[in-house]
Design a protein that fits this description.
- The chain is an alpha+beta fold and about 450 residues long.
- The protein is built from 4 helices and 19 strands.
- The strands form 3 sheets. The chain has a 6-stranded antiparallel beta barrel. Strands 2, 3, 4, 17, 18 and 19 form a 6-stranded antiparallel beta sheet that branches. Strands 9-8-6-11 form a 4-stranded antiparallel beta sheet, with no helix packed on it.
- Strand 18 and strand 19 form a beta hairpin.
- Helix 2 runs antiparallel to helix 3.
């Protein structure tokens, strides 16, 4: 009996899968057009059959496809500004480190605007200091005005007290003059003193009104000066924001990354350069003077990125899994990759990630296999699942490297444990359908089955 087994899902109830009748190929062929030809011996001779039960087996299926090697990351470097290339620092094939300056750009108006904004910030800061000092003076004036009000009220109280006293004295002296006891001249002098005190009291009242008016004015000045301080502080914040914004374009100082420089996003290798001294470069198209047949064209097709950087400490291989196998491939599934330009022996690994959803055009599931490159330690900035997968990969001891773009053949191993299986000889075919026979109530009953892992 054939040792290759095929998983089937029987459309009838699972409990009907009792003893199955594995018919010989001679019984399965009549009228079905299958590749196995029927051999009819005699109408009188009953066909020979053998009763067997479906066996539980661990079935392994391998899905393999031609593929290619791709860098773990590939970044096209475009300028943020419309500028000139003042100086380019690296060429194709050069190894670069993260944040290394790849090229310097020249935008003179940006630098001048940035310097002007810096001067504006300093000017506005001095305005704030002047407004704060003016506010202090205004507050001091308020204190002086309050003291003047207090002094005017004290003067008014003094003259009021004296006026009361002289008013009483005048009344007494008038009575004494009427009796002829006091000289009228004394009364006249006392009345003059009373009128003087009353006049002084009225003057003090006017001084109080004037002092209180001045106090209100000084307090209003304080309010205006406080607003002036806040306005000056807001001007400083606006100017400083503009200064920092232009600094991001021009020169932010040590430890910063202005837009007039192009930086490497990670440790890697320059695989394309379209930078030339005093090239005019644009944000959307990069270098519009680049050859139209140059690799790595911009999305608009009207230019090329200034640089293309590949991260090569880890590489990726893609395998597209057919739809009927997609549910059985997941992160951690066993895989192997053969890169003949690197080594003749396959490299064992695991599936690092899948697209989860199928491509609607090809009806396939994208599975990716990550491999460490020779001579590169496993990076710490990768997700833990990737680092675990890379740790399990054993590369041959060689100085050769896996280069992006190399032809590869990727395989994903699909393991189906404890699958019920029938031998091929137990199947019969009719057109596009596949059947087997089961023993049910003492009779042979034909049922349709679906083949596949």
């Amino acid at each position: 009996m054939n040792d290759s087994f095929i998983h089937r899902s029987v459309r009838r109830a699972a409990r009907a899968l009792g003893p199955a009748l594995g018919l010989l190929a001679a019984l399965a062929a009549p009228g079905c057009g299958h590749q196995h030809k029927a051999e009819v011996k005699s109408v009188s001779d009953p066909p020979a059959v053998q009763v067997m039960r479906p066996e539980t087996r661990d079935i392994v299926r391998i899905v393999g496809q031609p593929s290619f090697v791709e860098a773990y990351e590939r970044t096209s470097i475009y300028p943020k500004l419309t500028a000139y290339t003042q100086k380019w620092n690296v060429d194709i094939g050069d190894k670069v480190t993260r944040d290394q300056v790849l090229a310097d750009l020249f935008v003179p108006e940006i630098v001048e605007d940035w310097k002007q904004k810096g001067a504006t910030v300093e000017y506005d800061k001095k305005r704030v200091k002047l407004a704060e000092k003016t506010l202090l003076v205004a507050k001091a004036d308020v204190e002086v005005a309050m003291a003047l009000v207090k002094a005017a009220k004290a003067t008014w109280a003094q003259y009021t007290s004296e006026a009361v006293r002289w008013e009483s004295e005048v009344k007494r002296l008038r009575a004494e003059v009427g009796r002829g006891v006091v000289d009228p001249q004394v009364l006249l002098e006392s009345e003059n003193r009373l009128r003087g005190c009353v006049a002084a009291r009225q003057a003090a009242e006017a001084d109080i009104v004037k002092a209180e008016s001045d106090l209100q004015s000084k307090r209003a000045t304080v309010g205006q000066d406080e607003v002036a301080v806040r306005v000056a502080q807001a001007d400083v914040e606006v100017a400083d924001s503009d200064y920092k914004r232009l600094g991001a374009w021009a020169d932010c100082g040590p430890g910063q990354k202005p837009y007039i420089k192009l930086y490497s996003p990670f440790n890697g290798v320059i695989v394309a350069r379209n930078a030339n001294t005093w090239d005019f470069v644009l944000p959307a198209t990069g270098d519009p003077s680049a050859d139209e047949h140059a690799p790595y064209q911009s999305p608009s097709g009207q230019g090329s990125p200034i640089y293309v950087v590949d991260r090569t400490d880890v590489v990726r291989i893609f395998v597209d899994i057919p739809e009927h196998d997609a549910n059985f491939v997941d992160v951690g599934s066993k895989a192997s990759v053969l890169i003949k330009a690197f080594r003749e022996q396959p490299i064992l690994g695991t599936v690092t990630r899948t697209s989860w959803a199928l491509n609607v055009n090809s009806r396939t599931l994208r599975a990716e296999i990550d491999l460490p490159n020779t001579g590169s330690p496993i990076p710490d900035d990768l997700p833990q699942v990737v680092r675990d997968a890379l740790t399990r990969v054993k590369l041959p001891d060689t100085d050769s490297q896996i280069l992006p773009g190399m032809y590869a053949y990727g395989k994903v191993i699909i393991e189906r444990p404890k699958v019920r299986a029938l031998p091929v000889a137990a199947l019969a075919y009719a057109g596009e359908k596949t059947f087997c026979w089961i023993h049910e109530n003492g009779k042979a009953v034909r049922i349709e089955v679906q083949t596949g892992v």
